[in-house]
Amino acid sequence: MAHTQTFGAAAGAFTGRRPILQRLGAFLSGALARRRVYHRTLRELQSLSHRELADIGITRGQITQIAKETANGQ
């Protein structure tokens, strides 16, 4: 005779949810992508001369904030 066991509500608690490692992986992937965008933007803006920055309406003091906003999609 076979024995079966039911776990009630706990058995379906994770139904339809992504496993935690998959969610963690997606979070880390997104964070790394944002970090790459931030550093690329920062590097590109810092490489511009004061005159080139003035031509596009940016001061050196704004570079970090602009890089953060670009990385976060704002």
Concise synopsis of the structure shown:
The chain has 74 residues and is mostly helical.
Question: How would you describe the overall organization of this protein?
Answer:
This protein has helices at residues 20-46, 50-55, 63-71. The protein has 74 residues and is mainly alpha-helical.
Structural class: mainly alpha
The succession of helices and strands, N to C, reads HHH
The total count of helices amounts to 3
Task: Let me know the largest β-sheet.
Answer: none
Helix residue percentage = 55-70%
Shape: rod-shaped
Mean pLDDT: 87
- Poorly predicted regions: none
C-alpha-based Rg, rounded? 24 Å
**Beta-strand percentage?**
under 5%
Number of strands: 0
Distance between the first and last residues' Cα: 63 Å
Topology:
Blueprint: H1 20-46, H2 50-55, H3 63-71
Helix pairs in contact: 1-3
Give descriptors for this structure.
mainly alpha; 0% strand; 74 residues; rod-shaped
